[in-house]
Design brief:
The chain is mainly alpha-helical. The protein is about 70% helix and about 0% strand. α2 crosses α3, α6 crosses α10 and α11 runs antiparallel to α12. The longest helix is centred in the first third of the chain and has 36 residues. It is globular, with a radius of gyration of 23 Å. The termini are far apart. Associates with membrane-bound immunoglobulin on the surface of B-lymphocytes and with IgG Fc receptor on the membranes of T-lymphocytes. Interacts with LRP2; the interaction is required for renal uptake of GC in complex with 25-hydroxyvitamin D3. It is found in: Secreted. It comes from Crotalus adamanteus (Eastern diamondback rattlesnake). This is Vitamin D-binding protein.
Length: about 350
């Protein structure tokens, strides 16, 4: 039981690379059992946080069409048809693994914050109360189902959750409304989960601030409202940056509310929180450039502005310029989208570039 309960940190970037059709069938024909065992070990290593019933369904599904297609005279056509037919099964395994890994990493409360950010950045017009309700539901589903052996736990819970999203959020969002016309609930979930950020607001705005008001009864809602405001204003800021800001704000509330001079404590904490807000704005700026332009145009603009990104007074060697370009490109391609890797895309990774 102890060994069965062991968990390693989630892999933010998968390491399993599927071989070509020919390589798959050659290996399968030489040693069918060995092929299946190696595949199960490698695939399960990448998807170790997916609920077991979903993982079993995905692996059985894959091995089934390998057996079928490797015996077919039209092998490549068979693989193409089977992969298209079962694409949603593999995608659902991938996304449930990401969601459950995030829940394991952050815990239930920060997972709620994560979904609050997601829903707000996808639909900035969504009212705060609705965004909070949907975020709380999503977090509770993962708490209930990620470690469950119930066959259709996530699917059954998603049915109610997706209905609530479609009834709540689609009225003011054409993209979500389109997703809600998909026939099955898993399809709706995959569509909504995969939606990109909404366009950023051009109006100058400032998020609500965290002060001594959070110490009143029920005042903890102010921290969530602040994060909601930040996500609505900076719709392109990577989620990991905003979660770091939430952690700092929550810590300030925890540490300051029991003190005699509460106002002074919050004023002192502002010197810690303000730089994090600046980094959220910087992440929003980088990812806004990446999201608003084609990849070729993004590279062109980045190369044109790279010298302004280097510290003043430094010797701008070709290596420095090249390194900064690689860092910015790597950060943008991995982090400038919703559901980006939470550890890699955090504050430390961004600070190394600014």
């Amino acid at each position: 039981m102890c060994l069965a309960a062991l968990k390693h940190l989630p892999k933010e970037f998968p390491t399993y690379v599927e071989p070509s059709n020919e390589e798959i069938c050659d290996a399968f024909k030489k040693d069918p059992q060995g092929f299946e065992e190696r595949f199960l070990a490698e695939y399960s290593s990448d998807y170790s946080y997916a609920p077991l019933p979903i993982l079993l369904n995905a692996t059985r599904n894959y091995l089934s069409f390998v057996r079928t297609c490797c015996a077919s005279t039209q092998r490549n056509i068979c693989f193409l048809k089977e992969r298209l037919q079962h694409k949603s099964v593999q995608a659902f395994a991938h996304l449930s693994n990401k969601a459950c890994a995030l829940h394991a990493l952050l815990g239930e409360n920060k997972t709620k914050v994560s979904y609050l950010i997601k829903f707000t950045q996808q639909t900035p017009s969504l009212p705060f109360e609705n965004a909070m309700t949907l975020a709380g539901e999503a977090s509770k589903i993962l708490s209930k189902c990620c470690a469950s052996l119930e066959e259709n736990c996530i699917q059954n819970e998603l049915k109610r959750h997706i209905a609530h999203i479609c009834n709540t959020a689609c009225a003011g969002n054409e993209r979500i409304r389109t997703c809600c016309t998909t026939k099955d609930d898993v399809g709706k979930y995959l569509c909504i989960y995969s939606l990109p950020w909404a366009k950023r607001s051009e109006a100058p705005q400032s998020p609500s601030s965290i002060d001594e008001g959070v110490c009143r009864e029920g005042g903890e809602i102010d921290v969530y409202r602040n994060i909601f405001d930040v996500a609505r204003i900076y719709t392109r800021a990577p989620e990991a940056l905003i979660i770091t800001l939430y952690s700092a704000s929550q810590a300030a509330a925890t540490d300051c509310c029991d003190l005699v001079d509460v106002r002074r404590c919050f004023a002192e904490r502002d010197s810690t929180i303000a730089p994090l807000q600046a980094l959220v704005e910087k992440g929003n700026e980088i990812c806004g450039e990446y999201a608003d332009h084609t990849y070729v145009e993004f590279l062109k603009r980045l190369k044109a502005n790279v010298l302004t990104l280097l510290p003043a007074g430094t010797l701008n060697t070709e290596d420095q310029v090249s390194t900064l370009l690689e860092q910015r490109i790597g950060y943008a391609t991995k982090c400038c989208h919703l559901n980006a890797p939470p550890i890699y895309c955090g504050i430390q990774q961004l600070m190394s570039q600014v």
